[in-house]
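Follow-up to my earlier ticket, as requested here are the two runs.
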Amino acid sequence: MSTGEPSLTSTRRTVAAVFLAGVAVFLVLYETQGLLPAIREAYGIDGPTASLTVSATNVAMAVFLIPFSMLAGRIGHARQIGAGVIVAAILALILPFTPTPELLIAVRFLQGVAIASVPATAMAYLSLRLPSQALPGAIGVYIAGNTIGGLCSRLLTGLAAELLGWHGGLAFTATVSLVFGLIVVWLLRHDLFSTSRSRSAREVVPTGAEAADPVGQEPAEARPPRRMIPLRGGLWRIYLTGFLCMIVFGGSFTMLGTRLQHDPWRLSEGAVALFFLIYLVGTVVTTYYGRLATKFPRTRITLVGMVVALAGAGLTLINSLPAIIGGMSLLTAGFFLGHTGASAAASASRPGVDSTRAAAIYLTVYYLGTSLGAWLSAVLFVDFAWPGVVGMCAVSLIAVLVLTLTEAPIGFKKRN
């Protein structure tokens, strides 16, 4: 569905706007992750409390994804995207001036609320504005923007912090995000300021059967009943897979910088930031996942991914920088094999299942996994150092292996 047949220039402008919106909000999503030792020292707080600057943002994002996806049709998708990127950047500019850790965590929570407005809306906006043949490529560009923003969130902030201090690192990232946000607003200016209320009211995200077949829809009474939380076809297992995988990924990278700034390495923020380039392994894996999926079933790919991630987690126990780099690279590759398959499975159409809602719930659970992983890894690091973090990763990865191998129902009864 689209609002007319846009010109090539309009299509490019829309794709560029959504790409930069993804970069802008993900640029500030993880900006404190590589600065936790500096934040802990500056405020005189412990590791678990400092990790809340990561968890609070992800919790808020998870909680507000679904509400924002429902609100977009009322206020306009472009307005919601534009407001989200600007508010998130302005809150990021406030962070360096927060006098207490409690206020820092509160501002980070509000950032998560603002950030949620973009991923909750972006793909629906693309589907409304672009012709169907341009949509797959545009969604790929948007996801690439998320990946680039997430990588630069850690990398740019850490490198800037080495020159300007951690306050300056946060301010630098916030400034870059605000510049991108202003460009997004300029690119969306026609929809922001010239869209009538009636048109905005028509821009309601199609879901379920409506999205799959907007022309010849079944009568409402002929459609299968839909659950508030879709669980059919093993969806609960897919949600749990994403949750557990993100505990591993979010937790390990959250405490990686703290480990590397301890003995025997004592690396600087800039040097630690370079380790986040390992994220590029995920870009390679997701690029080739489609080819793997045509040859092997998703469950087999997930099993391989978890075994690879387990091997990588074990390798990081060796106190050697090459071993840590190799181990984190394997862990990253395994995570993306599991997450990419689970994400695609959550979005796939199933009889009687609202795929849009299932995808939104998957993202919600996914970011809750990030929050729990960041906090739990910090707690374990205090008592057990890095082996505690690896133990958390091992338990989560083995749980995914068991889920994938047994496919046994846990807490949900199958219904005919």
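Run two:
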Amino acid sequence: MRLFLKSDQRAINYSFFMLAVLLFLLAFLWNTPLEIWKGSRIIFTAPGNLITDYFKIANVGAAFMNGALMLFQALFVLKISKTKVNSMIVAAIFTIVGFSFFGKNLYNSTSIILGVYLYYRVSKIPFNWVPIALFGTALGPLVSVVSFGFSLPTITGLLLGNLVGMIAGFFMPILSQHFVKFHQGFSLYNIGFTAGMIGSFFMAIFQSFELKVTPVYLVSQGHNREMSLFLILLFSLIFFLGWWLNGFSLVGFSVLLKESGRGGSDYFSQFEKGVVLMNMSLLGLISTGYVLCIGGELNGPTIGGVFTVFGFGAVGKHIKNVIPILVGVFTVGYFSAHDVSSTAAILAALFGTTLAPISGYYGPIFGVLAGGIFIMFTTNSLAQLHAGMNLYNNGFAGGFVAAVMAPILDKLVSRPKEKNLK
């Protein structure tokens, strides 16, 4: 089955462009142009390490404007690279949109993208560098911290920050190909694990020179009414679009639910577009509902988590393998010392769905177990290794959990082997 026809590519690019325009216009619904300008300056010059909610340090309008700019940047990269949209690109773009509400911005992402592209040019090895570059912006805070967080002279800070970003981006493709073998494809956020390792390496260098990076926890509250309306309307519209494309039926959806998701199943190449869009939108609605039902806040970080789950509805996730992870995170969080309604615990639940392939491959019981282990692991001390400079810290933790659980479950659980990962 061909992934997308030429006409489909134009329609998809146009849809992403319209989403960017929507985010741009919504910015002015919340704040004046002057407020957005001032807020954008704060966003561009903030260290941005975990957890820095742009709603909190700037304003909602500036965060939405940042989302529009980040989406325009991603579309520009697709345009100049002549990259066709596939499932992984879809996941990468919506992850970028999500993280543009906390941590990523136009400044701190550019040098990382250039670094990945530089490796592509130097290595002369043919590979699709664009998804790695887009996901690699997880290390955006690394650029911002060096540029603005060490009290360096302005020019020195900017030069060093962008140099570090290019170095990190340059080595991202090499390491990401290696680390996927570590967790055997049971964690969908492979770049998150890679970025965690790179961030930890740079953190060790900074500490050697007594350069301190302090993790932060800046989150906002009081936005549930308008943000839930925005998200529910957006995901409902996409669901009905998918339903329409699928002939107003759910034909094929039950087949998608049988996928394990291991290694990042490419749903757009396997199923009709309408089926995949319905899957994505249902994941978005479930994620939004989870935040609201447990009394959480729809702020910058949690909206980022919702968009990431939504995007990965094209790559490996579906409602059947995601829900057990959410149940496991909530259950262990509820009966332990964690506040399940806190932003940190909600992020553990949403991003913990990186382990959805464990649920899909070994069964829901082990998915619940994986979710429970994950919240204990990710809320412990892993973020201290990179001081929050890896925005995909939960992907970092997910890689470790998958690497431990997979070989154990392989010995204890009878399950037909799937095709070996390359």
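The only thing I checked on run two: The two ends are 21 Å apart (CA to CA). Let me know what else you need.
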